[in-house]
Amino acid sequence: MSKKPFYITTAIAYASKKPHIGNTYEVVFTDAVARFKRMQGYDVYFLTGTDEHGLKIEELAKAEGISPKEHVDKVVAEIKEICKIMNISYDGFIRTTDEQHEKVVQKIFKKLYDNGDIYKSSYEGLYCTPCESFWTESQLVDGKCPDCGRDVETANEEAYFLKLSKYQKWLEEYIEEHPDFIVPESRKKEMLNNFIKPGLQDLCVSRTTFTWSIPVTFDPKHVIYVWLDALTNYITALGYMSDDDTLFKKYWPADLQIVGKDIIRFHGIYWPIFLMALGLPTPKKLYAHGFLMMKDGKMSKSKGNVVYPEMLVERYGLDATRYFLLKEFPYGQDAIFTPEDFVNKYNFDLCNDLGNLLNRTIGMVNKYFGGNVPNYTGRINDVDADLEEIVASKISEYENNMEDLHFSNAIESIWGIISRANKYIDETAPWTLAKQEETEKLESVMSHLVETLRIVAILIKPAMTETSNKILSQLGINEEASKEYDTIKEFGKTTSDLKVIEKGEPIFLRLDANEEIEYIKNKMKE
After folding, report:
1. Is 353:422 a contact under the CB 8 Å cutoff?
2. Could you read off the pLDDT of 90-111 as tens digits, one per residue?
């Protein structure tokens, strides 16, 4: 039976500078969704990449005394290295300087022009270089860019425009008739009430004041403006309008596109209109996530509060870093990074709750049964039944949360199982059962604990792949057996004749909180 395709994308990262931990959240989140869907049996195609054109990059390269291509090559190498460090399982990585992308963008521009959706005029307005955005006077906040708060400049030039106004009514109706197209709800309302209903202005889609972009084939003094170039990556990467469009036919429309809240306007307005004008279906869902903030606002070098992911991974491990990011962000909202929170989550959630549960279980199976896991024989008493029922309800809760992109809640569901298992040890008191030679009850306790840990290991796999594999290895379960996701739906699916390892290495070692908090603070200042 062929697997159902599932296409998921991140926004492509702007290749201006090395990403910090906040920039990394989106790709980690998307990776966890992709891994979850693969675990469920979908044929996933996960795309990420880099946005490499525009005036800002041209100016950065000039300041460095190098070419724009040299600048973006350097930053792209750093971004790819971060993806490697964070174990990002992307299937495709697109660069907007890729030859195929540039050629197809030119074809798309020409098609829209030939169809009458793009026309030539002149532009006079206010331009924010860092955001690559034009604004009207009324859209400014205290005379500055409403997105980044920086100064804008007056721009006056000949340009090509896309007829956004032509599609306003269609887009408004489409969003209202498809309530899950833009999530969360607050972002959908923002798009409709703040941008679409007040009236869409036609969009400037070419520039003549810089050269670092894709030339318009039939008017080469113009280069194609960033949003038409960048947004179309999601279809050019699949081979749209190229010699081989197999992937495009298989995966488009995208099932889920994940973007930051700062660019949902472009994805929720410009992008569906581009697609409509090309006669293509829109993505099924756009999800806008929040930002990772510091207590004193956004991360910035000048504030001395920047945290880079490789520092956390090197000192605390990949999975602790991924766990923090996925747990810390509420659905669609901002999160706050503090060294104290990071260290506390490591010590309490990972070391105390999960690590101790595994260590105690491995130790008791070795002590009481020579490492041989007793076969599951069903529910011996009420406490067994309660554990199984809690596990089943938390699995259901976890799946609903994952489908709804409530990842922080999904992790809480897993930790609900871990917490119940730790309580189960105290309730059943295996040491007392051993002393009283209540062998049947002791066997039941050990098989229940091993089975619960197996289920936990599978549930955490999208977020914490390394930890998942370590738990399964310590339980004597090979990784292949763990891929049977549906086996978690019925308690007691552990393979018979399991043998745990003699003494497991702790998967998380308790940190000296004060020392590590100070370490992170010092690193942030470097």
Report:
1. yes
2. 999 999 999 999 999 999 999 9
